[in-house]
Specification:
This protein is an alpha/beta fold. The chain has twelve helices and eight strands.
Length: 302
């Protein structure tokens, strides 16, 4: 299956009202800001989008509304993060009906599958839809590791076209290329390893902090993708304290707090995620506000 996903794809937040109900107009408004900043595509309902905190019907509401808001300007993908393979297959089919351009599929939630079970899950979900599929490999968060050898076994799944590599082991980019060549489109999925990932051959970036700093995020991608390594390194050094926030357990709260500080959204999350408080809040706000105060002057690169 020919797919041309490349560039910056935000794992977009889902915006909520104060009563924790969906705020679809605010989500669409935020998405439009990022489109205007030059994102290349978007992933709805990833980890940052609080997928598992939404009811099934709410997830479909988000997909339909955001697809309509995008109006065909960029590819729209959705995360698939369900507790059983059967439910993941059902959601994949419903996402296709809702007009999605692709799926970012996670392993089954909660249960820690072994290699055989993990590959069976991906084969089943990919087989349930005609959409192109990106496999999300994040053993740090989900305790299931899809190794390069497993991806080699999955080569015969025609619509499994891309990998979001979030193992925090940047060696994987090279290992995948050495073992499988260019069979899959490789996306870096760890914000504070993106420059290293691009240097080693990643063609895209599923980003979290882009939600709060879309212009700087796009500038970093453009510099790295065009090989302007010195300028990219300088921008990366400014950005890295923020990018570290993407690797923490409370990444959703931290990213939404950064959005609130930059005027791009609400920090409201759904319980059990709560608003951060006290010393923790002061520490994270210090990082965000220092970055805002020292924001670099960007030059148009596109």
């Amino acid at each position: 299956m020919k797919t041309n996903w490349k560039g910056v794809y935000p794992a977009i937040t889902t915006q909520f009202r104060e009563d924790e109900s969906l705020n679809l107009p605010a989500t669409a408004k935020h998405l439009e800001v990022m489109i205007q900043a030059g994102i290349h595509g978007v992933v709805l309902l990833g980890t940052v989008g609080e997928n598992t905190a939404l009811e099934y019907v709410e997830k479909l509401e988000v997909l339909r509304e955001m697809k309509q808001s995008v109006r065909g300007r960029i590819p729209v993908l959705t995360g698939v993060a369900e507790y059983t393979t059967a439910l993941a297959c059902r959601f994949a089919r419903d996402a296709e009906k809702a007009g999605m351009d692709g799926l970012m599929v996670l392993p089954a939630m909660v249960y820690k599958s072994d290699e055989r079970e993990t590959m069976a899950h991906y084969r089943a979900v990919a087989g349930a839809t005609g959409l192109p599929v990106m496999a999300y490999n994040n053993p740090v968060s989900y305790s299931v590791d899809i190794t390069p050898e497993m991806f080699r076994e999955l080569e015969d799944v025609p619509n499994l076209v891309a990998i979001k590599e979030s193992s925090e082991n940047v060696r994987r980019i090279t290992d995948l290329r050495n073992l499988i060549g260019d069979r899959y489109i490789l996306f870096g999925g760890v914000d504070d390893l993106v420059l290293e990932s691009v240097l080693l051959g990643a063609e895209g970036w599923i980003s979290g902090l882009v939600n709060a700093f879309p212009d700087e995020n796009r500038a970093l991608w453009d510099l790295a993708a065009s090989g302007h390594w010195e300028a990219a390194r300088d921008l990366y050094r400014w950005y890295t304290p923020l990018l570290h926030l993407d690797t923490k357990v409370k990444l959703v709260q931290y990213i939404k707090l950064a959005m609130a500080e930059t005027g791009l959204g609400s920090e409201r999350t759904r319980a059990p995620r709560l608003k951060i408080e006290g010393a923790e809040r002061a520490e994270i706000l210090g990082i965000i506000r220092e970055a805002i105060a020292t924001r670099p002057k960007l030059h148009a690169s596109r």
